[in-house]
Amino acid sequence: MTGLAAVGESSRGRWRSTAALFRRGQVPLARRSLLYDRVRLAISIGGLAFAVVLVLLLRGIMDGTVARSTSYIDRSGADLFVASAGVTNMALASSALPADTAARLADVPGVAAGSSIIRLNMIAAANGKTRPSVLIGYAGEGALGGPWKLASGRRVAAAGEVVVDRYLAAELGVRPGDPIELLGQRFTVVGLSDETAAIASKYVFIRLDAAQELLRMDNLITFVLIRLEAGVEPSAAAASLAGANPALAVLTRKQLATNDRDLLGRLFVGPVNVMSTIGFLVGLAIVGLTMYTTTAERLRDFGVLKAIGAPNAALFKTVGGQAVFLAVAGYVAGFLATLAVAPIVTRVVPDIAVSVRLLPATRAFAAVLGMSVAGSMVPLVRILRVDPLMVFRR
Amino acid sequence: MTAPAPFAVEGVSRTFGSGPAAVQAVRDVSFSVAEREIVAIVGPSGSGKTTLLSIAGGLLTPSAGRVVVLGEDITALGHARRAAFRLRHIGFVFQSFNLLPSLNALENVEVALNLAGTAGRPAKLRAMDILELLALEDRAHIHPNELSGGEQQRLAVARALANRPDVILADEPTASLDSAAGHRVIELMRTAVDAGEARAMVIVTHDTRILDVPHRVLLMDDGRVRPASDADRASLRLPVPG
């Protein structure tokens, strides 16, 4: 090619030249440059991975814990939940219903069974220790609302008996046969329930009549759990029941679980966002510092590239390639570390569940990519200001 | 019609600063280099050699005059076009090699080809050919920090030759090398020009040991360039032309 041809290069020609920089089969300058100092690369990826773990784990704890907080609703076997009018959640709402509500609703067409429960947040005590818990008074064998899985022992059969969540029992140091106090009244542990622990809501189950006596709620209950006949559509049944009983709130299992999750999610979301932002800023600082130091040390290399005629696009490509490489490596390492750490967190703190879901994980990847690109801006500006004449300095 | 000289510097001057503090580093310099010709510009430190070479390579804009490569005034080009021109038409060899330490020898050559739009197998084959020409084929996968000084400079020459430039501009290419290694580098550079890998070459140096290789020697002092006289030749122990 002659000089004239090159000088006369049109803007289309320059675009073609730029596009040529991204052809396959080129020397991976960005990757080579990062890999040249492997210790620093490992530290950078480790730091970035730490930020990713922080963000993913916090989000995972929030999602997992919120999801587990509705395990009672999800596993109770009820299709509909009936409460006082205006009640929209189970976690924090106060509901009081006449004790015969379940019997009245059981006669409604489409209702297969109705069970009363009393649900109340309270303190359980044993061996000089106290723990917050959720008391469920249920109607006993065959009724809805009792423990759905036992780790050991049996379900309650008498008024003075209690089934305690296995993790709560461990915290209080009780086993089947041991005494436990609820509101100052002594109960005997007869069984330990499984999958009934969520943050600040570990369940204890006693008989409904014992709960009414304990709480002095004669002729009162808090919720009615309804199982529908096969083929009955829950939302239609809920609307029908609520229409016929204006003093009642009737929610489907899905509605109530969603409402509870939203409520708890809102309580969590502020602190989690603050922590995630901190994680993001930590990651940004790591990427920024890595990119800056890598660039500062290699400034002469960029000067050489500029001197031999590398277009700015080639320099963008190199720095951008480093940012993307760091982002992908840091994210993959962080994601895998999160998957490895999550079961350990759950084992150490049983009332915490970690759920790493696709959407937050994808958002975290976008954030990592964003922070890498943002972190590469400062060195990029420095590179563009490099004077190619520096190559003549000895 | 006569083909234009591959390379010409016409009335180039360069002044740094202004007013009483102004320094004229290059003063009205003109010379041209013919096809397959190697020209050496010899002068002491501070004589303006590197400034002249920077202008010749389109890295520095002259205060006056122009640099013409294959009939084209590169000083009239904008920044981006001048960079694109350098990439395809000018090869640089620096005193301090300026190799990319994270790339092996082959990749150091290949990257120059990649930047000019050649990638993949053609780039690898071309890079390997050049390494063979400079007797570096068995060092292709070695990183620069594991090469000797002479090998590093030969590798820098290989990179400069990668895109078959019209002119090679070499700044003190032997200053960091011992006599034997320096001579070998210069011999190989001449071989490359003879083989048509570059159309012309300008070497800026104060190393008089290598002046038997260039076809022509110019002297530079206080920013001015002039042909070497017989007296200069005698003092520099240059072979008599002809």
Helix content of chain B: 25-40%
Which structural category do the helix and sheet elements of chain B fall into?
alpha/beta
Q: Kindly, what is the distance between the CA atoms of the first and last residues of chain B, rounded to a whole number of angstroms?
A: 27 Å
* Chain-averaged pLDDT of chain B: 91
Quaternary structure: heterodimer
- Tell me about the largest β-sheet of chain B: 6 strands, mixed
Strand order of the largest sheet of chain B: 6-7-8-3-9-10
Q: How is this structure best summarized?
A:
With 394 residues, chain A is of the alpha+beta class.
Structural summary, described in words:
- The complex is a heterodimer of chains A (394) and B (242).
- Chain A is α+β, with helices and mostly antiparallel strands.
- Chain A contains 14 helices and twelve strands.
- Chain A has a six-stranded mixed barrel. A two-stranded antiparallel ribbon of chain A has the order 2-10.
- Chain A starts with a helix and ends in a 10-residue tail after the last helix.
- The model of chain A is unreliable at 1-9 (pLDDT under 50).
- With 242 residues, chain B is an alpha/beta fold.
- Chain B contains seven helices and ten strands.
- In chain B, 33% of the residues lie in helices and 25% in strands.
- Chain B has a domain at 7-96 and 165-236: Rossmann fold (3-Layer(aba) Sandwich).
- In chain B, the strands form two sheets. Chain B has a six-stranded mixed sheet. Chain B has a four-stranded antiparallel sheet with strand order 2-1-4-5, covered by helices on one side.
- The mean pLDDT of chain B is 91.
- The A-B interface holds A 1-4, 6-7, 9, 14, 17, 20-21, 23-27, 29, 32-33, 35-36, 298, 300-301, 303-312, 314, 388-389, 391-394 and B 50, 53-54, 57, 59-60, 69-72, 74, 77, 80-81, 83-92, 94-96, 98-103, 107, 110-112, 114-117, 119-121, 123, 159, 166, 171.
